[in-house]
Amino acid sequence: MQISSRAKHAKAEGAFEVLARAQRIERETGMKVVHMEIGEPDFPTPKGIIEACKKALDEGKTHYTPAGGIPEFRSAVAKHLSKTRNISVDPENVLIASGGKLLIYATCVTFLEPGDECIVPDPGYPPYQSAVSLAGGISIPLPLTEENGYQVTAEELEKRITPKTKLIIINTPQNPTGGVLSKNELEKIADVVKKSNAVVFSDEIYSDLIYSEEDQHFSIATIPGMLDRTVLMDGMSKTFSMTGWRLGYAAVPTEFYGSMKKIVNNTVSCCPAFTQIAGIYALEGDNPEVHMMWEHFKERRDIIFSLVNEIPGMSMIKPKGAFYAFVNVKPILEKYSITSADLAEIFLQKAYVACLSGSIFGKQGDSYIRFSYATSKDDIQRGMSQIKKLIETEFPT
Ligand SMILES: Cc1ncc(COP(=O)(O)O)c(C=O)c1O
Predict the structure, then answer these.
(1) Helix (H, G, I), strand (E, B) or coil at 246
(2) What is the value of pTM for the model shown?
(3) Which CATH number fits domain 61-284: 3.40.640.10, 3.20.20.70, 1.10.1240.10, 3.40.50.150?
(4) In this predicted model, what pLDDT tens digit does every residue of 303-351 receive, in sequence order?
(5) How far is the CA of 395 from the centre of ligand 1 (A)?
(6) Does residue 125 line the site of ligand 1, with CB under 6 A?
């Protein structure tokens, strides 16, 4: 008996693996680990959203729904995307899925034949490469560097486009770097894309988590001529602290909509009605908690930025969005001949801080560690203080 090479090559998502290990250490040692591995807001889902869901359950909204989503939620999403991206999205083009992650997979399966190429950011969200490989495609990494603020440059993109390029994944604000793509660079990227046969998958799951006035979220789909060749994905997980609800959505060009819907329909059938009804409240109701969470993330970003830069051998540039600190640890790795995976493990075992090795996100992440700051201020301070003490005593640079 044999498993397919596709299944063999797909990786489990590192954040979930580290979380499981950290929880085991907590059980076995009784020590409290500071959890900075998983990208999940530590706040409860806003009350109004929960109430809307409870009401839907009480009203018996517990059955299958249309595969693309219930019309009312698709309309709410279309209105939301049209307003926030300054485009005109028809509800007929809105595809609801149980999480943005499923939309990544559905897109890869829809556009990639075996051997086709998909350009992915490096460092980038690991499920991109897994989805490409599950679809039989080949990932072509597009390096993002600290020196240029983790921008995708049109020039570097163009160098990697071949006749086999069928899909280009971009992500802004970005996981794991916190980089935000500028309108100016996205316009140049769009010019390059238009010369190719590729479709763009624009992952905008952190669109509401940008922390400065001058870095507004901008979608490539807003650029004239791009809406018809872009799958624009966003979802409820990060903005509304709804990770466990599994609710994401995409604006999909008419030409591809039916094919992508079939992938959703043949995997999860549809999304629960009660979560979609809660989703309508999230997009259209009054949720003061959302701004409060944004303020906390901004404050935590500033705290972790200054604490990291006080640790010898560790440094970072200020992330503009999302909720991750992508920390350069090259001086430590070089001096002690260890990898970022080794260092992340040392942080877990000796400083009781769970974090992710940058190498999980691609080759360009080899000298980095990712800390999620979607955790309390106290935990960030405690975690960074434990790491500082460890570095000063055991890994001075
Ligand atoms: C860049 C990026 N895209 C997509 C997702 C998936 O989000 P969802 O919970 O909607 O599946 C994540 C979650 O961490 C992410 O970081």
Answers:
(1) coil
(2) 0.96
(3) 3.40.640.10
(4) 999 999 999 999 999 999 999 999 999 999 999 999 999 999 999 999 9
(5) 34
(6) yes
